Amino acid sequence: MRFQTGNHTGYRQFKGTRATAEQITELYEGLCQSHLTDFDVMLSGYAPSAAAVEAVGAIGMDLQRKAEKNPGSFFWGEHGPRCTSSVLTNNP
């Protein structure tokens, strides 16, 4: 299950749209209300703003808390150096 699909514009091509922190949070709240948060893995990708990073971080922490009763049942990671806006990392 994905919140948003797309990739960083630093690649040759890109698809998808930027989700705001509010949209990310709203999507997760909808999943929670529907009891659809039994994830084994959360792969976070490109985050276009500090607020989006914070929203994804809050979701990851919530999922980790939910998995505490079964240690090792949840993994959270990101993929590659282009997962965070250059504004946040000081990398072009």
From TrEMBL:
UniProt entry tagged with the keyword Mitochondrion: no
Give the first-level EC class, as a single word: transferase
A cellular-component GO term for this protein: cytosol
This chain belongs to which protein, by name?
A: pyridoxal kinase
Family per record: Belongs to the pyridoxine kinase family.
Biological processes annotated in GO: pyridoxal 5'-phosphate salvage
Q: Which UniProt keywords apply?
A: ATP-binding, Kinase, Nucleotide-binding, Transferase
The EC designation for this entry is 2.7.1.35
Report the superkingdom from the record. Answer: Eukaryota
Matches recorded under Gene3D superfamilies? 3.40.1190.20
- Look up and give the organism this protein is from: Aspergillus oryzae (Yellow koji mold)
GO molecular function terms noted in the UniProt entry: ATP binding; pyridoxal kinase activity
| InterPro entries noted in UniProt | PyrdxlKinase (IPR004625), Ribokinase-like (IPR029056)
